[in-house]
Each structure stands twice: as C-alpha cells, then as structure tokens.
From TrEMBL:
Organism of derivation: Olivibacter domesticus (Pseudosphingobacterium domesticum)
PROSITE patterns: HTH_LACI_2 (PS50932)
Pfam families per record: LacI, Peripla_BP_1
HTH lacI-type domain sequence ranges: 4-58
Descriptive protein name: Transcriptional regulator, LacI family
SMART domains: HTH_LACI (SM00354)
Gene Ontology molecular function: DNA-binding transcription factor activity; transcription cis-regulatory region binding
Keyword Transferase in annotation: no
Keyword Chloroplast annotated: no
Keywords tagged on the record: DNA-binding, Transcription, Transcription regulation
Length: 340
C-alpha cells in the first residue's frame, strides 16, 4: 500500500497541509470539529506520520533561515539587520542563504532546510522563480514560511511587501512633471509579481497622462552588470531615444550611469533618471539619484515577527497575512536638476 502523506489528507478534506499538521498535533487554534475530521480520515487511510521529521521538528533549533537573492543590494543588507534585531530579542539565531538569483539554487537550499536545521524560513524569491513545489514541500513538513519583498501570494504564513504599483506610478508621474516626453522602464524579471506591479504602475501613470506606452521603451535587463550596460547604451543610441529612465531595481543603477556616460549624455540635462533603491550613497552619486526607498529594516523586523509568531503556534490574524508598508520618494538632482 502506498504511503499516505499530509498532502493527500489535505486534498481529500479540502484543507491546507498546515491545517492538517496542526490538527494532527492537537494545536489549540484548530477547531475540535476539524481535528476530528482529520483524525477520522487519517485512521481510515492508515496515515502514518514521518516519525523522523516529527522528532526533528519537536526539537526546536531556535534558528531562522533567511533565503535571499544577494547581499550586495542595499535593501537586502538592511532587511537582514531588521530580521536580526527581532530574532536576537526573541532568542533566535539567523542563518542567511544566498540564491544568487538562481532558481535551482533556491530549490536546493529549501530542500536542505527540510532536515530540521531551522524552525522557520523567511524568503524573498529569485527573479527566475515560477514553480512553487519546493516551497510546498516545506509547508508539507510543517515548517512555517513568511515571504517578504518578492513573494508568492497565498502560500506561506504571511507576506510583507511595499505598495510597488503606487510607488512606480509616483516615480513615473514625477518624471512626467519634470517634462519628460518619452520614459523608458528597465525591468529585471518576467515572472515576479513585484516587477509586474512596478511595470503596471509605470504604464498606468503614462495612460493617465495621455502618453502612449511604447514597447521600445521597455527594456528587459539581465543579471550581469556588463551586459546590462551594453543593452542600455544601445537603447540610448537609438533614434528618438528616451529623455527619462526608471530603473526598477537597484542593481541597474551602475550600468545605467555608465551607459549614459558612454553615450555622452548629461544627467539630468539630456536625460532624467530615477530608480527603486535603498543605496546609502544615493545622495552622493554624480549626480545624486532620485529614488523610491523601501522601509527595508522595518520589513525585516515585521517579517521576522510574523515568522516567530507562526513558529510558536500563535494565530496570525487576517490583517497580518499580507502587510503592506509604505515606500518614500526621495527627489534628487538626477531627475530635477535642482539640489536637495
């Protein structure tokens, strides 16, 4: 007879695997009726729990895993500090894992975390991530997961994000107010919801101001700085080049500045630039760059607090399952020509 797992119980009862796991552990936040339904089917199907995995989970490691694309990005560096501030206060250690924007690396890391090394996982997924089966494996094992910044919706125990649509709208509107007539958008992923929200915010601002959204102004960038510099420079040499550019992620700022320099375009006189970035030195670039700054430290703190709450088996309220924190527009010389 094939082994029956929590996934099969969840499917037949139309419940989540997390609910099945809690019911089997007699968790206080699962109703008695649901517990009895789960136990009755488990008995009928001769469900046998994974004793090894259960014993590993019973021995709390007091350790959180933080799975992120990189640390060179200022946003992620600041979010680590936020996570550690909460974790240390609660008596937890933090292990940081880097995926380097590689989906296969992300899968490998999450598979390794099934061994009981950590009590819960904070994750910001890679720009290549599409399939969620590796994340569902963690859920099936009863390991709490909280997403932040780059998320898969309605999968984990909670999400902490910023309002990327409105932030991109605000950034685009600012360039329009600075008399830009042709605004390009540099994207970094075709699959991440965060990129699509920023792209849609950009498109919406154009539409609301009577601009046509031109496909030639959408540039899909890569994960290599040198290649992106070449792509952007080529874009700047085309006929009817843009007079404004939005970089949707921080890593595109350096190749963007280098491409403008190579194309002999002066910022902001010839072209105005703005970006999503938490760079500490944004104000001292030449010229200082206009940015949408995310509350990275606060996002890390909030995500860690949610995860620890889930680990302790406490109820996560409906308004906590998706937390949206505001970003801030910082106007500097790269887009306005004025000093701030």
């Amino acid at each position: 007879m094939a082994t029956i797992g929590m996934k099969e119980l969840a499917k037949q009862l139309n419940l989540s695997t997390a609910t099945i796991s809690k019911a089997l552990r007699d968790s206080y936040d699962i109703s008695e009726e649901t517990k009895q339904r789960v136990l009755k089917l488990a008995k009928k199907l001769n469900y046998i729990p994974n004793a090894h995995a259960s014993s590993l989970r019973a021995k709390k490691s007091k350790t959180l895993a933080m799975v992120i694309p990189e640390v060179a990005d200022s946003y992620f560096a600041q979010s680590i500090n936020g996570v550690e501030a909460v974790a240390q206060a609660a008596g937890f250690h933090v292990l940081v894992y880097l995926t380097h924007e590689q989906y296969e690396k992300e899968k490998s890391i999450l598979k390794e975390l099934l061994n009981g090394r950590v009590d819960g996982v904070l994750i910001s997924v890679t720009s290549q991530s599409k399939d969620v089966s590796h994340i569902n494996e963690l859920k099936d094992a009863g390991i709490p997961i909280v997403f932040f910044d780059r998320v898969f919706e309605n999968i984990g125990n909670g999400e902490v994000i910023t309002d990327d649509f409105n932030a991109a709208y605000l950034l685009t509107q600012h360039l329009i107010n600075q008399h830009c007539k042709s605004i390009a958008f540099l994207s970094f992923s075709n699959s991440l919801s965060i990129n699509m929200l920023r792209l849609n915010g950009y498109k919406s601002a154009l539409q609301d101001n009577g601009f046509n959204m031109e496909k030639k102004n959408l540039l899909a960038c890569l994960n290599q700085e040198d290649e992106n510099k070449v792509l952007i420079e080529k874009h700047l040499h085309r006929k009817n080049r843009p007079d404004g550019i939005i970089a949707s992620v921080e890593k595109l700022i350096t190749p963007l500045y280098l491409a403008c320099q190579a194309a002999k375009l002066s910022i902001p006189e010839d072209i105005k630039i703005a970006a999503f970035s938490n760079l500490a030195n944004a104000a001292i670039l030449a010229p200082p760059i206009t940015t949408i700054t995310q509350p990275a430290f606060e996002m890390g703190k909030t995500a860690a607090s949610l995860l620890i709450k889930a680990i302790k088996g406490q109820t996560i309220d409906a308004d906590e399952q998706k937390i949206v924190l505001p970003s801030k527009l910082e106007i500097r010389k790269s887009s306005s020509g004025a000093s701030f």
